[in-house]
Design brief:
By secondary structure, the protein is an alpha/beta fold. Helix content is about 30%, strand content about 25%. Helix 3 (about 105-115) packs across helix 4 (about 120-130) and helix 3 (about 105-115) packs parallel to helix 5. The longest helix is centred in the last third of the chain and has 16 residues, at about 175-190.
Amino acid sequence: MSDQNNNIIEMNNVGIRYDQGPEILSDIKLSLAQGSFHFLTGQSGAGKTSLLSLMYLAQKPSRGQISVFNHNINFTNRDQLASLRRHIGVVFQDFRLIEHLSAFDNVALPLRVSGMDEREIRKRVTELLTWVELDAHMSDKTSTLSGGEKQRVAIARAVINRPDLLLADEPTGNVDNIIAGKLMKLFVELNKLGTTVVIATHSDKIINDFPYPRLHLQNRGLHIYYPADTSVLRGINV
């Protein structure tokens, strides 16, 4: 998808609240450039999942303006939102897999929706599930898989279509350090192909091993921390 000003996401004075409760996030200002990679951190309850939900267009802000792919979300209708979401891959904490389908069919779903040839789908899905070490479980229904295995299926489904924007909420929370490192390398490779990546995480190890800019939520606001290795910084402004 083309991005006229090279920014995937722009937020200006954004606030979000649920029902009549207090604001969870206040006066968020954020501009994320196409092809950037950044972590999202903060204590439990700081608003990470809420911020991600705004990014993947699950809800609109209570106030302020959000632009995704140069579309002002405040004035975008349901059909337009659905079209924009096709360019976004999301890894949810609760996986949101279709339990009665196999691991293969869950991962293949985005490609089938897009109308890809079945032979190409089988090639891509098989390669990716082998990469995340699920080749022995491709035919298994996801309801029979462990939490870590479900996590890898969810990640494979999110990246299979090479989205313009990838949002992942604690994507390594249910796997060991070896698999976590392998999954992170998958995200890095996708980023090298041009995908903008935002990963919410509590893992200090991942943040230290992969020194990308860190967006930190605290006291309803957003702060940025840059890694010591400035060579990884690519187009992020707050």
